[in-house]
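I wish you would study the pair of lines that follows with an eye to the fold:

===
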Amino acid sequence: MSVKNKLTLSVQYPDARLQESITRPKIRRWVQAALFAPAELTIRFVDAEEGRSLNREYRGKDYATNVLTFAYNEGEELDDDAPTQADIILCTDVLEQEAAEQKKTVEEHAAHLIVHGVLHAQGYDHMDDEEATEMEGIETELLARLGYADPYAD
């Protein structure tokens, strides 16, 4: 494994509903596809209560959201071999609801949210239209390589 894609990955299922279907090997594959540098990541699946609590405490928004990324070395200039460090929190309730609303499988939506979270961990954002277009393009390309449809197609 090259330094570029060296990955230390922890997967946590305090909300175990997706543990059998969204498995660690799938998650590792999705994360690896979206990595452009070494990383130490935790992917954590939580229920609506924990998701809401985290979103309220860290973003001031009192609702559960689909994915939260806590990038611990955000804005730092990292050496080539220094890992990106982040926790990526997925709310199972929101993930399942959005998948149903968007007529996607839970797996397709989880893959998208994990790729999205990994890009955030590496400094990508969508605060303005230009950034959003760039990030969505990267997500669409990575997901296509993984065999998933464009998550932004209607």
